[in-house]
Each structure stands twice: as C-alpha cells, then as structure tokens.
Amino acid sequence: MNPAPTSPKNPPTVRVLLPLPLGDGYDYLSSQPAPEAGTLVEVPLGKKIGIGVVWGDGGGDVAAEKLKAIGRLIDHPPLPEATRRFVDWVAHYTVTPPGAILKMVLGGKLRELKAKDAALGGTAFGETALGETPPALSPEQRDAANQLIASVDARAFSATLLDGVTGSGKTEVYSEAIAAALRQGRQVLVLLPEIAMTAALIDRLTARFGMRPIEWHSELTEKQRRLNWHAIARGDARFVLGARSALFLPYADLGLIVVDEEHEASYKQEEGVIYHGRDMAVVRASLGAIPVILASATPSLETMHNVQQGKYRHVILRRRYGKASMPAIKLVDLREEKMPAQNFISAPLIEALQQAVATQQQAMLFLNRRGYAPLTLCRACGHRLQCPHCSSWLIEHKRTKKLHCHHCDYNMPLPKACPSCRVEDKFAACGPGIERIAEEVKHRLPDIRFAIMASDTLDGPKAAQVLVDQMDNRELDLLIGTQIMAKGYHFPRLTMVGVIDADLGLSGGDPRAAERTFQLLQQVAGRSGRSEDAGHVFLQTYAPQHPVMQALLKGDRDAFMKAELRERESYRLPPFSRLASIIVSGPDSRQALDVANQIAAAAPRLDALRLLGPAPAPFAILRGRHRYRLMLQAARNVALPVILRDWLGALKWPRSVKVQVDIDPYSFL
Ligand code: ADP
Ligand code: ZN
C-alpha cells in the first residue's frame, strides 16, 4: 500500500516502535486511513527497511519535511492491546527501552516476520479438540481444582498460590483449570523454570489433554520458532508450554497463565532485559484481566507475603496423593563422622544406598556443584588456578579433561607445571563436585548402576528424558546430580536421597540464602518416597542446629517462613522494601569506577532512599570486565523506576562502559 498524499502543513503521523533498544519509537507519515495500533509495518530506517509496530499517533515534534512515510502494511493480525500495554509496562518497570521488550515479543530476527506467508498457515496447530483423560481426583484435590476453575470462569484477574506438598498432585489440579480455559476457547500458557523439565511435562500433559502443547524456549530451531510464533499470534496454538520468554509472545486470546515452581530463582532473567518471569506473569495476567496460578511446594517469601496481605488467594494441598507419605529426614552431623580424607559420602549414606539397592529401590545423591572439584591448587606454593577473565576459580571437569570457568567460556587443559612456581605435577583437587562423588561411588560401591545428571552433562530436554526413562525401566539404581534433577521429576521407585553438602548455599552475601537453601533441599527431599514405599532423606551438614536444618528436620515450613519474614522485616529487606542494583562495568577498572562515582554523586537525595556503594561487585571481574555495584534500598511506596530513569537519563558515560539496572535483584554477585 502506498502512503496517501497528505497536506504538507499538518500531515497525519503515526509513532512506530521498532524492535531495537533505542528511544520510544519514531514518527512516520501515516497511510490513509491510518493503520490501527498494533499493525506491523515496514518502515525506512536509514538506508534499510525495518519492521516495526504502529504504537499510536505521532508526537508531531518532527519537522514535516524530515518525515518519511511508512511502507507496506504486513498481512498479520495486529499485536493485541494487552501485549502492547505489557511492553510499555515492562519497559517502564525494568528501566529498559520499549523496543528491547518489543524484540522479545517479535520472538527474534525480523526476517522471521518477513517469512510469514500462506505456506505457514494450515499446519497442525489448528488442532483444538480436547481428547481429555482426566484422573479421578481425591476430595482434597477436587476442592482445590474447583477453586481454580472458578477463577477461570470469572474471566477476570486473580492470582492464586497453589501450595501443595511435593507429590500432592499440583499438576493434576492445575490441569483442571487449563481444561476450563481451553473449553472457553482461550489460550493457556504454562511457564516452567527449566527447559530440561519440559520434555517430561509435555508428555504428561499430552496424555492428559490429547493435545500436544506448543513449546517456546531457546532450544527451538529457527523454523519451529517461526511456526510457533505465528500459530500463537493467530490463536491457532491454544496450549503453550515454555520458559519465561514465552510470556512476551503476542497471544491472540490468552485466558490463563500457570507458573510452575514459582519460587525458582531461574525465573529471573539476569542478562539483556533483566526481569523476573514470575512477577511479570502476574503483571501480564493483570493487564489481560485473566487469572494466574502460581504453583509450588515451597512458595517464595514474596508470594507468601502477598497471600498474607490478601493480594493472592491461597489454595492448599496438604497430603501426598494416594498411599505416599512425606519422607523421613535425618541430619548427618559431619563434625562427628570420621571420614577418611578424600571421602565425601558418610557411612550412614553408604549403608542407605546399599539398603536401597538390596531392596530393588532407587536412590539419588545431590550436590549442587558441577564438575570434579571446585578448586585446584598447587601443593608446592599454594597457587590456585583462576580464570584469567573472571574473579572465579577454575573447576576441573573429568568429562572434558579440562579446567572450566563456570562464568565464561574459558577452559584449559590441566597444566603440567604450576604457572606460579613452575613445580610440576603438584596439583591437588580440593573439595567435591558431582564427578568426584561419582568416582567415590564407583570405588566404594562398584556394583551400583548410576548416571550423572547436570546441566553440562545433558544435551537439552531429550537427554534428561533418557535418564528419566532409564530410571523408569530400572536400568539405573542411582542418579548423582545437581539442582537440575531436584525439580518436578517423579521417580516412583526412588526412596533414598542423600545430600552431600546441605550447607552449600548458606554462605555468601545473598539475603535469600536461607530461603533458597530451604526450598532447594525441600525439593530434593521431595523426590523420594513418592509412591508406596517410604522415603528417607539424609542431609550431611556441619551446622545441624541451623534454622534451615531444623525446619527441614521437623518439617515445619510455616514456622521457618514466619521467622524468615520477621528477619526480612527487621532488616528492611524485600518484600518489606524495594531493592535495585546498578552494575557499572567496563574493560578499564578506573574508567568504570569513575562512572560509578559519577552516578553516585548525582543520586537524588530522598529520605526514603538509601544508596550503598559504589563498591567492587563480589564478582569484581567477569568476562574481562571490571564491575562496580551500587545498591539502592527504598521504601515500598517509592517509584524506583521513575527515579532511576530521571537520574540515569541525565548522565552520560563512554560507550565502553555499560550501566545495567536490576530492579528486584536476585543475584548479589
Ligand atoms: P506435585 O506436582 O504436587 O509434586 P504431581 O502432580 O507430580 O505432584 O503428582 C504426583 C504423582 O501422583 C504423579 O505421578 C501424578 O500422576 C500422581 N497423581 C496425583 N494425583 C492423582 C490422581 N488424582 N489420580 C492419579 N494419579 C495422581
Ligand atoms: Zn571466566
């Protein structure tokens, strides 16, 4: 379509937002009649043609002779209003240009959109018939499901915490709400914290609904992304299962969002646009006037607080489904276990492993540390092998026969001589990673059939599924793994869980350390005893009196949460205040520090705002960049995004320096 001639005095313009991290969009001369908001259009952009989205009327502040006209309107349904408002909301809240959010909505490269054509229509996405085979629910489950269905039937915003112990059947219960939304003819989005979990859940949901959910995550091929994007935007894909990025897709008619394992910190995106997937899911539901269900056995303190404040509804499942009971927890006090040097598995764990195998049951050893050893040092001079680009030790991996940095791509073979003292063959591995635990198992229990499960030993969701199948087929006795195996899996014959280092997450400067450790260990423990045979969980710890260990031992989550909330309140930490961090990084330490100081000097002086720093970030060097951190603490009613936008917007810094704002930080590195 060609732009219609317009009067040179007052030409009608539209503002077009481009999927680029620049400004708030550009004015273009409109065609006649003006395209409606949300329409995808081609526009001239310098010497190129770009694709943008009509965002509203032009601002009228561009001289008429400088205006260029919009080009071809793209034959595609306009982005719905809820999606456009979501873009603006997230951009504002995260202090990010809206174009960067639009880029997430458009799902990647622009040429994907150009590739849209009739050939992509009429695929299997049109499948809408539900071939349901719902299980019969227990009375407790039925009651919970009815409450969730009621929230779907209300066709209005609500947030509900589905709070059920591990194995209580949360998936079966929220599936009832999904069915209700699908029967309304609307779309449903289920968010998961890890891609590795999708394969198992897809199969389960496909069996339940007779309809395969559409996937959305970073491991799709280009073609799958394009097909899925268009199917979702057209409304043909009704049932979507995805990682946090799926939240930004332009759903034609979204009717329900489920956030599974809502407490997971991996919902926080830490790079590019920094946002929390769970929190933004609640925002998206609110803007779309639809219900959101947050499911967890160990809800986050933030969510619990919202329940207590009456903002979220609370639906509880107290019992495991069927004959399963909650596992028995034992603390193994490592101060009293006299273990030989280089051994990390205590006698009670070895005994329990033998016992499990002897009775044809299965076991899991958990250690949240990939690789063989977290630290390699020279016994001659004490030199520790460190990444040349990051403030972190190099981690030995037997699998690759190399030392790896877990924060960048750097790796190197184990050197013969110490780089510091030149003495040869004196390197010692310090502490265990899961590969070392596997070695110890092989040595001490040679007949056990085991596999390692960690993000670097799995190639995507399918590889996780292979291990799950091997467990189901009893080809394995034992899984040794990191947090990736703690989530969502259901192994009916798994009765014994051993945690190698229950104290691991407790040190460091993270205000959520206790909460996270509790959640993680509770999730790990929850893998055991999910069928008829009772589960046993062993936690190896040097701090058996720590409130986290005591809460796990006594199974008293609510008392622990209450104590944690009191502590957060007394330190004015979230959810009782707002935090934001500003990370200033650059290749040159001096220059980065100068910018950080300049930002601090320009800080607005407000009583309700406290500024800490700048100080070197705990990761003072990351991927070769020197990092300084400023931390802001504000009362809950302070509009931090507005303050930050005005404050940082008035400053300038060299291009090589990067200033990143992290609202509601989860990482304190
Ligand atoms: P959660 O997510 O709460 O840990 P799941 O939804 O994974 O629990 O349920 C645990 C196991 O119990 C699964 O194998 C599930 O299929 C089974 N289950 C739960 N509720 C029922 C039910 N009403 N009928 C049959 N099986 C059920
Ligand atoms: Zn590194």
N- to C-terminal separation?
52 Å
Task: Give me the CATH superfamily of the largest domain.
Answer: P-loop containing nucleotide triphosphate hydrolases
Label the CATH architecture of the largest domain. 3-Layer(aba) Sandwich
- How would the global form be characterised? globular
Mean pLDDT: 90
Top CATH class of the largest domain: Alpha Beta
* Major sheet characteristics: 7 strands, parallel
* Beta-strand content bin: 15-25%
Structural class, please?
alpha/beta
- Number of helical stretches of at least 4 residues: 17
Level of helix content?
25-40%
Total number of beta strands: 28
Domains (count): 4
Order of strands across the widest beta sheet?
Answer: 7-8-6-9-12-5-13
Q: What's the CATH topology name of the largest domain?
A: Rossmann fold
Q: Unreliable runs, pLDDT <50, ≥5 residues?
A: 1-8, 116-128
Ligands and ions found: adenosine-5'-diphosphate, zinc ion
